[in-house]
Design a protein that fits this description.
The structure holds two protein chains of two kinds. Chain A is an all-alpha fold. Chain A has helices spanning 7-12, 15-18, 23-31, 35-57, 60-76, 87-106, 124-142, 147-158, 163-170, 174-193. Chain A folds into two domains: 1-109, Rna Polymerase Sigma Factor, Chain: A, CATH 1.10.1740.10; 116-205, Orthogonal Bundle (Arc Repressor Mutant, subunit A). The longest helix of chain A has 23 residues, at 35-57. Chain A starts with 6 loop residues before the first helix and ends in a 12-residue tail after the last helix. By secondary structure, chain B is mostly helical. Chain B has three domains: 1-46, no CATH class; 48-83; 87-120, no CATH class. Chain B starts with 14 loop residues before the first helix and ends with a helix. The chains are: A mainly alpha, B mainly alpha. The interface between A and B is large, with 51 and 34 residues.
């Protein structure tokens, strides 16, 4: 366990060392307005935040907006995070609630994806088009899952969180996480097996 | 059930997979938006003593001026009844009610009262 750090001590700590600090320590420093500590929290939870938002909205652009706003809301309400070591779960709850509010307000704009030209990456338009098609199919396949199953699936299979971490941050039992993961995988795999070009290993056919 | 081999390939859902700069831009945007709030949080702790005084200038300066003015009024009021006369005031008192021109008599007495003479001819 790292010792408690005061403000001046934090200024002497490298960012790479800050990455190893616990959530509680980073929250304490963020409460004092330390941008580097908050930056590490953002780095640590931006992908999970995005994925949780995506599991609710099903839309990448909305998920990005929701996750971004959730960080700002979390910073403004940081005093409300009573158990600082559980910042992750608290933050993901904010993300989830905001994503649900967005759905209620705007009715989800399903199926919106960037045009192949706009989304062109290093692999070129052809590869990106295939990726976008696969992405659309995965998103459609995930529509048949409950929010919590989508979250568990994304956090485990895409973000690489362990069952215990997911259970802790979502506030559900470890066994429930395993069960959700099992059914989510089975559902999505069955759906994707009917999609042309899909291979279970993730490699191109 | 726990094996990574069972996992479903979902990389297509990661915006960073097709856009390598996505997460760096995301992070930068959040930090930019958070700058004001972070600044607000660190403001009370980062101020030095002169900065704190400067921050209070709107209250401190008028209060100090008011205190100085009150102190001046108090001192003037307290000291007006017993203040010693200055030499110049004393000469004024001496010649105040004289009916005749004092200059000849002053000149006749010598240099001791020279000050009164100088006062009447126009001062120092």
């Amino acid at each position: 366990m790292f010792p408690e750090l005061n403000k001046n001590a934090y200024r002497r700590v490298r960012v790479s060392e800050l990455m190893e600090r616990t959530d509680g320590e980073l929250v304490a420093a963020s409460l004092r307005g330390d941008p580097r500590a908050f930056g590490v929290l953002v780095r640590r939870y931006m992908r999970p935040g995005y994925l949780v938002a995506l599991s609710v909205t099903g839309n990448g652009e909305d998920a990005e907006d929701v996750a971004q706003e959730a960080f700002l809301v979390a910073l403004e309400r940081l005093e409300d995070c009573r158990d600082r070591e559980r910042f992750g779960g608290w933050f993901l709850t904010i993300v989830r609630n905001r994503a649900k509010n967005l759905l209620r307000r705007e009715k989800l704009r399903r199926g919106e994806v960037l045009s192949p030209e706009l989304a062109a990456g290093p692999g070129g338009p052809h590869e990106d088009l295939k990726r976008l098609e696969l992405r659309e199919q995965i998103e459609k396949g995930m529509e048949g899952l409950s929010d919590v199953r989508r979250e568990v699936l994304l956090l485990h299979d895409l973000e690489g969180w362990k069952h215990r971490e997911i259970a802790e941050r979502l506030g559900i039992p470890d066994g429930t996480v395993r069960s959700h993961l099992h059914f989510a995988r089975r559902h999505l795999r069955e759906y994707l097996e009917g999609v042309p070009g899909y291979t279970p290993s993730g490699e191109e056919a | 059930m726990n094996d990574l081999g069972d996992r479903v390939p979902l990389e297509a859902l990661d915006p960073g997979a097709s856009d390598p700069g996505f997460w760096a831009r995301f992070h930068a945007r959040v930090m930019e938006e958070a700058r004001a709030e972070l600044g607000r949080r660190q403001a009370p702790e980062d101020l030095s003593i002169p900065e704190v005084v400067f921050a209070w200038r709107r209250t401190l300066v008028p209060a100090a001026l008011m205190a100085a003015a009150l102190a001046g009024i108090f001192l003037v009021g307290q000291g007006s009844g017993s203040a010693p006369l200055s030499p110049l005031a004393l000469e004024e008192v001496l010649i105040q009610d004289l009916e005749v021109e004092p200059i000849p008599s002053v000149l006749g007495r010598g240099a001791v009262d020279e000050v009164a003479f100088l006062h009447l001819v126009g001062g120092f």
